[in-house]
Design goal:
The protein contains 4 helices and 4 strands. With 104 residues, it is an alpha+beta fold. It folds into 2 domains: 69 residues, no CATH class; 33 residues, no CATH class. The strands form 2 sheets. A two-stranded antiparallel sheet has the order 1-2. Strands 3-4 form a two-stranded antiparallel sheet. A hairpin with a 2-residue loop joins strand 3 and strand 4. The longest helix has 18 residues.
Length: 104
């Protein structure tokens, strides 16, 4: 998916990210999501979908409860991979380019 939330108003962009999470977690759909939005990366990589007690779908924040190992982040610069790992590793990176991106 190339910029699935790009150019959308914030509530619709958030809904697109939620749909991606639901596909990943409830339907076992693999996808590559291309985005320039660090907020999309953070949300998709740290949120999971599950069925609630009444069969409804709920989204839960990862926090300290588990690690979503099925979500990997890859960052490119000038066509070269400069990062490949988890969201936790990305946000802890000391790479200058990555730090500047995260501060934007």
């Amino acid at each position: 998916m190339d910029e699935p939330a790009g150019g959308l108003d914030p509530p619709t962009a958030w809904s697109m990210c939620e749909l991606g999470i639901k596909l990943r977690d409830l339907r076992d759909v693999s996808a590559i999501v291309v985005t320039h939005g660090k907020e999309n990366v953070s949300f998709i990589a740290s949120t999971y979908a599950a069925y609630g007690p009444n069969g409804d779908v709920i989204l839960m924040a990862e926090k300290d409860r588990l690690c979503l190992i099925n979500t990997r982040i890859m960052m490119l610069r000038s066509g070269r991979i400069i990062f490949d790992g988890s969201d936790e590793e990305l946000f802890r990176s000391d790479d200058t380019y990555i730090r500047e991106f995260l501060l934007l």
